[in-house]
Amino acid sequence: MRVLYSVLVALSLITGSLTATAAPVNDETILQPRPARLLSDYNLFVGASAQTPNVGVHPFALRQPLFTDYAHKFRFFYMPAGSKAQYSETEVFDLPVGSVLVKTFAYPADFRKPAENIRLVETRLLIHQKSGWNAWAYVWNEDQSDAVLKVAGKSFPVSWIDSAGETQNITYGVPNKNQCKGCHILAKKFTPIGPKARNLNFEFGYPGGEENQMAYWLRNELLTGAPPLDKIPTVAALEDTSASLDKRARAYLDINCAHCHRLEGPASTSGLFLTYSETNQAALGYRKRPVAAGRGSGDLHFDIVPGDPDTSILIFRMASTDPGIMMPELGRSVVHSEGVALLRAWIKGLP
Known about the structure:
Helix content: 10-25%
Strand content: 15-25%
């Protein structure tokens, strides 16, 4: 992850001087019920292909990000001038109307050289309008000058050389409007997923230097209602081997699965609840029988069998690419081998 932060800083510095003369973020377009045709219409970026944020647009990262076919992601948030988000200890911050959450998906040609030959493929906007949150997907054109709205989604080939020097080829899927709703519904309302206190409370490489993200929000008066920094929760990253397997696995399940698998989520009827704060072992899947059997269970009997990942439905589904079996159902076409390895080790160590 540190490499990705460094890339973002480098890209920001390349064209950072442009922000002084750029037109401001287009608040009027943000609040329009109909989305703009082009990403550039919002003025969220200057030097768009370099992902240089405009004045008032702030970069951020998640301690444990959602997996999407190994895409690198550049994240930003925007709030209208003078406004603040409301802190929450467990849920996404309450961002004011007129706010935008931005996530750009990108692939370096060679993951061993992550700052070179980066292809931007998609930018998703979550826009908080008077009627609530809306999601719009924009696909980048071939010359990387702008991205075009794709309400119905789109699929196209993407290839790269991975960190082991092997060529990878996938069919990248841009979600349609209804697919976005499939993951972003909480208590029957469309809501963001990522920017929670526990996933922001760590050092980030801003253009001006490294700083704890929560300290940055507070210093820039972007947040209200937050406790002192040492009282804000945090989680462990997948690759942080100094943290326990339990903390890393729970953080992974929290960001990749719990937006659906929670009492208020679309998968509430499953009885499998994977939020970071869940303490009930049955709800977490320990020796829990699935609500519905069939292909999705692989003829296995329990969601998690402590000590035995090979007979755990959780691993069976996460290690599959069959659309009728795999979990998560959307957002990936390949197996996240590092994530599955982490969860296998976690389950193997459960008493």
